[in-house]
Amino acid sequence: MEQGAKRGRLILWGIGGVMIGIAALKAVDGLGALLVVQQPVTPGEVIVVLNGDVNGERTMEAVRLYKAGYAPKILFTGDISMGPGDSALAMRADALRLGVPEKDILIEPRAKSTVENVQFARPLLEHYQFRTVILVTHPYHQRRAGLLAQKAWGDKVRIINVPCRQSFWSPEQWWKRHQDRRIVLREWLKLMYHWIAGQI
Questions:
Q1: Of 42, 68, 185, 194, which residue is most buried, by most CB within 10 angstroms?
Q2: Tens-digit pLDDT profile for residues 21-32
Q3: Which among 89, 189, 194, 75 is positioned nearest to 145, based on CA atoms?
């Protein structure tokens, strides 16, 4: 009798341990999912694409949105002295190759960070009187980029967050992949830094 009760308790402890483990994994997955901000795509006046587009996914998403008629202009921001994906000129070249007319492309050629992306884009948004911006970046970068943009551009600019549909990164089980672990840790550390610095 006593052995049966002991075995029953062990089974219950085992089930409880498995459930706690599952809950913990879901919570860890959630740290990746919280970085992603996806809003319904509605028409805007310009698509702003941040540099860091080494594999061209941000540019391809911007071109898809442009061709679908969501905005008549694309603004690429990134220092032109930097390499492919980080240079506004390189991203513009990719967009031209994908069929976007040169007249519909704007560039901001100095930014070397996300903070500078949004700060240096602001004068262009003001000059062209853009009030509705479709903001395109990678899913893991979208929350930080969106918060920084809202702080830099103010309440007069409406931001529509649209991460790349095709991305090398996924929030599901990110903790299993070395590169994704680095990305998620870096993004959360940067979010904390921006919050302490009053940038978001």
A1: 194
A2: 333 344 566 888
A3: 194
